Every structure is written in structure tokens, then in C-alpha cells.
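Record minuted for completeness.

…
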Amino acid sequence: MVEKVATVLRVLASSSQSADLKTAEIARRCGIPRATTHRLLTSLEHQGLAERDRRSGCWYLGPDVYLLGRAAAPRYDITSVGREAVHRLALETGESAFLSVRRGDETVCLIREDGSFPLRSFVLYEGARFPLGVVSAGLVTLAMMPDREVLDYLDRVDLASDWGQSHSRPELMARLHETRRKGYAVNPGLVVEGSWGMAAAVFDDNGQPAWALTLTGVATRFQPGRQKELGRLLLDAAHNLTVSLQSSGTTVKGPHL
């Protein structure tokens, strides 16, 4: 039941980046029967964790979610530090820049800032979730995890069934090895054709990949020669952000366990 509640809350969180959500649509996205979804939403509403617009019938996160988020922020929120790194990347490259966080078997986008180049990719947005190994943030996070954790994860998931043959285990393993060799990940339009991404990992004070900095854009902006330049900028920014977090006096153990 807790898993179902968490799923409903995550779907509600996505409504800020998509169409307003009614009960039937929430049920469809959660893969939960409509009657069960309605009971969960009603219970969440009684607890202040969900709120329904009586005129439209659409559901949203409730006010207590905001209070819980504020209480958790001192432990998990690095956006005040990370936003400057994202801003610099967008300014220096002209591409869209992002900061994502690892949440269990997923990465979640926290910050987006668009650069000056007018053609952009919209695969990533604040609140977007992807499995580890999917999009460049998920790829670099998985690549920087210990071998035992990587193999355990790949034994539990079948990314190819949802994301296509390019995410089969052999092809993913090849990209993981290449990511480790370079230090940064490259996603050559594997999620949306023509939309490329690159990412570098940001480490917590246990040396675990807890966050990732990403650049995305159209394929023509990610030719081999420029990839090296963007990779260097990403690695420098990720290193500086890691050092800033670890020297700030703030607890920065990643929220991935």
C-alpha cells in the first residue's frame, strides 16, 4: 500500500509539468484500478497531502507536502549550491543545463536552465524521472556506482522492454564502460531521436554518485570535437560542485538509499 501511495504522489508531482490530472488519468499512469486510486486520493486529501479542485475535478499535491519538503530540505536540498553550477554551464555552452538527483533506481531532475542557443531539447524538465541507465544523468550515475550494485540493478530490470533495444544489457554495458573511460556520459538521441545529452556525476561525502550535471541539445551541437569540450566543462563543473558541497559544512550524503 505504501508503494501505491508513493506512486500516486509522484504522479501528482508530475502534474506541474503536464496537463491537469483527474482521477482516471492518475489511475492510468499509476497502473492502479480507478476505485483504488480514488480511495488513495481521498485519504491523502484528508491528510493534507493531496488537494482536489472542486470545479475541475483535478488533483494536486496538498499543502502538507510543502511542509514536509521544507523539513527535509536541509538534508537533501543542494539546489542553492547547484543552481550556480547549472547557470554557468548554460551560460558557457549555450545549451540547456540541468541538475538531477539519484532517488533509488531513478534520477529526478531538480533544476533546468536554458542557454542562449534557440534550438532546445525538452526530454528533461524539473520533476522528470528516468530509470538508472536511461538519459545521460542516469547513465553516468549507474556507471559510477560499484560493480556489485550495477550488476544487481541490471539483474532486476529490463530496460529494453520499455526503452528499446538500444537499452538492452549488452548495449548498456558497452555505454557504461565507455562512460567510465571518458568520465562523462553521452546519450546520442536514444530517448528522443535527435536530442542528445551529456552528463557528469557529482559525488557525496561517501564517494557515491548522488547527483549529475547534464547538458542537452540538438544532435548538430554535439559533434565529436565539441563533445570533448563539453565533457571537460561538465567534469570541471561536477568536480567543483562536489568540492563545494563537501567543504560547505552541510551534510551531503546522497538521498539514494
The chain has a mean pLDDT of 87. The chain has two domains: 2-71, 77-247. The longest strand covers residues 209-218.
